[in-house]
Amino acid sequence: MSALTLSSSSAATLRADAVVIGVAKGPDGPAVAPGGEPLDQAFGGSLAGVLETLGASGGEGEVTKLPAPDGVKADLVLAVGLGDAPEEDGPYDPEVLRRAAGAAARALAGRKKAGFALPAGDEASLAAVCEGALLGAYSFTEYRGKEDKNARNAKGKKGKDGKGGGGDKSAPLAEVTVLGAKSRDKAHKAAAERAEVLAAEVNRARDLVNTPSNGLFPKSFAAAVQSAAKEHGLTVEVLDEKALAKGGYGGILGVGQGSANPPRLVRLSYTHSKAKKTLALVGKGITYDSGGISLKPAGHNETMKCDMSGAAAVFAAVVAAARLGLRVNVTGWLALAENMPSGTATRPGDVLTMYSGKTVEVLNTDAEGRLVLADALTRACEEKPDAVVDVATLTGAMMLALGGRTFGVMANDDAFRTAVHDSATEVGEPSWPMPLPGHLRKGMDSPIADIANMGERMGGGLVAGLFLKEFVAEGTTWAHLDIAGPAFNESGPFGYTPKGGTGSAVRTLVRLAERAAAGDVL
Ligand code: BES
Ligand code: MN
Ligand code: ZN
Prior knowledge:
By secondary structure, this protein is an alpha/beta fold. The chain folds into two domains: 3-180, Leucine Aminopeptidase, subunit E, domain 1; 196-518, 3-Layer(aba) Sandwich (Aminopeptidase), CATH 3.40.630. Helices cover 33% and strands 21% of the residues. It has 15 helices and 20 strands. It has helices at 37-42, 47-53, 94-107, 123-136, 149-152, 186-210, 218-232, 241-247, 250-256, 309-323, 369-382, 396-402, 414-427, 460-469, 506-517, and strands at 3-7, 18-26, 29-32, 63-67, 76-84, 113-117, 175-179, 235-239, 264-270, 278-289, 329-339, 351-353, 359-361, 387-392, 407-411, 431-433, 451-452, 478-482, 488-489, 500-501. Helix 13 links the parallel strand 15 (407-411) and strand 16. It is elongated. Bound molecules: ligand BES, manganese (II) ion (MN) and zinc ion. Mn(2+) 1 binds at residues 289, 366, 368.
C-alpha cells in the first residue's frame, strides 16, 4: 500500500510530483476549495478562470490536470471536483472527500509522490481524504508477468510523466502526503492511523477477491488467515475435511465434495480483556462458484472467483478490529469451499444433513452459499455472541433489486438492521434494508426433507435470507448482508473503487464493531 504522511506544508511549498486541490461547483463556474489558496496565489488569483478555460465545472469526480506555475514546488496540479460547496462554509460530506481523493489518486498512478491539499481541517474530513487516497491508490499486480523478454529488449525513451519506455504507468501512487494537517496533533495522528488500518484491510480483502481461483482455494485461504493471525496475535482454528466430517458439517461438505480442493471452516478470533460484547461475523467463502452440477451457463462464471468476498470481508474486519485495539470481541467464521461439478459432487435432489441436524433437499447446486453459511451460522450461534452478522455474495436477485453498488441488509431484529444500515451509511457504503416476508418460506417446503435450498424465483434474495434465518439459533440477534452487487466491480473504476474486488462491507463491519465497543449497539 502507498505510504501515508501528514504535513503542515502548503500546496505551494510541498516537494512532490503532484499536488491535488479541490474545485467546487460555484454559481458562476468553478471555485477553488479551501486548501488550494496558495496555488491560486501562484496563478495570480486566476486559477478558477484557468480551470474554467480548461473545461472544469467542479462536478464530483471530475479530474483536471495542469502544469504548476512558478513558485509551486510540485510539477503538476491536479484539480478534483467536489460538487456543490457546503452551505455556510461547513465541512464537506466525508464521502465526497473520500471519493475525490480516490479519483485523484487513481489519476496519479505511475507517479511517486503527491500532496493532497483538499479541505481537511477537521478530523472527519482528514480521515476521509486519507482513506480515499489510500483506497484509490490500489492496483492488483500480483499476476502481471514478472518478466516480459520482448518488452525488456525494447526500452524506449522515458517521458517525464513516467509513461513510455519502461515506465510502469499502472504502479499505484507510492506516497500520499495529506496537507493542512498537524502531524503532531494527537487527534489528527489517530485519524490518519485509523484510515491507514482501514485502507490496508480493505485492500487485503480486494487482493483476496482478485486472486484467481487457481491461486486461492480453501486450503490456501485458510493458510493466509493463519499467517495473518500469527502476525496480529489472533486465535485461529481450521477444520479440515476430516474434522468437518467428524463434526457433521453436512452443508459445507456437501458443497465442497465435488472439488479436488477440499473445504475448510476457519474460526478467527480477536478478544479484548475489557470487552463487554461479542460480535460474530460469518463469511461466504466459495473460492469458485461454477454452479456445481447445476452448472452456470457461459457468461455467468467468468467472475465467480469473487464468490468468497464475504469471507474476505470478515477476515479483513477481524484483523482491523485487532489492529485498532477495539474493546469488543470479534469472532470471524469463514465457510470455505469450491463449488465444482464432478463424479463426487452433490446432485440436484440429494439430501444433506446439516450441522444443526436439519435436513436440506438440494434442488439446485448453484444455491450453495446458503448451505455453507447455514453450518457456519449454527456453529457461530453456539458460542452465544451478542449478535451474528453474515456477509455473502448470495444472490443474483439482490443485484437485480439494488444494482451493482448497493448491498441488501436483512435481519431478524429491526433495530439491529437499522444499526447495520446506519453503520454502512456512516462509512460511505451504500446499503438498503430489505424485508424477510414469512410467506416466502413455504416455497422452500420439501416433500422429503425439512427444507429445500430453493424457493420462489420472485424475491430470490429474500428467499435466501429466509433460508439462512432457519439456521440462526432462537434468540440470537442476526443480520445478513447480501453483497452480490458491490463486491466485484465489473465496470470501470469510480471514486476510490477500483475495477474488480472492492472490499465491500469491510468498513461497515469495522464501524459496527466500533459501535458495539462503544455500547451504541447491542
Ligand atoms: N454466487 C451466486 C450469486 C451471485 C451472482 C454473486 C452474481 C455475484 C454475482 C450464488 O451462489 C448463486 O448462484 N445464486 C443463485 C441462486 C439460485 C440458484 C436460487 C442465483 O442467484 O441465481
Ligand atoms: Mn451459486
Ligand atoms: Zn455462489
